[in-house]
Amino acid sequence: MMDAAEIAQCVLRIALALAFIVIGVSHFVAAPARTMAAMIPPALRQKWIPSPRALVTITGLCEIAGGLGLLWEPSRFIAGIALVLFLIAVFPANVYAAEHPKRFGKAALPFWPRYFGQVALIALCLLAAI
After folding, report:
1. How many domains does the chain have?
2. Is residue 42 domain-resident?
3. What is the mean pLDDT of residues 2-22?
4. CA atoms within 13 A on the CB side of 34
5. pLDDT in tens, 72-86
6. Is residue 61 part of a domain?
7. Burial level of 100, CB count in 10 A (0-12/13-18/19+)?
8. pLDDT of the residue at 99
């Protein structure tokens, strides 16, 4: 029988997994994918880096895989670490959107709330991974 902490951790894993899977799937929906591609900062639009649309596809696959990985015990730890690295990697796109609120609307959360939200999400991924 699981104690309260184990139940809470299980609920956290399921909630995070669902969130990452749903958000990952949104990378394959036309309108959100266009917005996400536009959020790729100009500094990352280099010939040696995949196109913004390809990056959106790759990040969507990463989110889906990370979410699924949290649900399977043998992959849970590595999935949690991978999601932490993912959240760090996509942060520049969130900063770029925050700098251009008129262009990105609701996707352009102000920098500091986005920063603290990202830090909290990283902490939750680490907690779910153990």
Report:
1. 1
2. no
3. 94
4. 3
5. 999 999 999 999 999
6. yes
7. middle
8. 92
pLDDT band at 90 (very low <50, low <70, confident <90, very high): very high
Q: Is residue 60 part of a domain?
A: yes
Q: Is 37 exposed, middle or buried (0-12, 13-18, 19+ CB in 10 A)?
A: middle
Judge whether residue 22 has pLDDT over 90: yes
DSSP 29: S
104-118 b/e (C-beta count within 10 Å ≥ 16 → b): beebbbeeeebeeeb
**d(C-alpha 124, C-alpha 9), whole Å:** 10
Quote the domain boundaries for residue 64.
Answer: 4-37+47-129
In this structure, is residue 78 part of a structural domain?
A: yes
C-alpha dist (Å) from residue 110 to 38, 102, 104: 17, 12, 11
- The CA distance from 54 to 45, in Å, is 11
Query: Is the pLDDT at 105 greater than 90, yes or no?
Result: no
Give the pair of three-digit tokens for residue 65. 């895989």
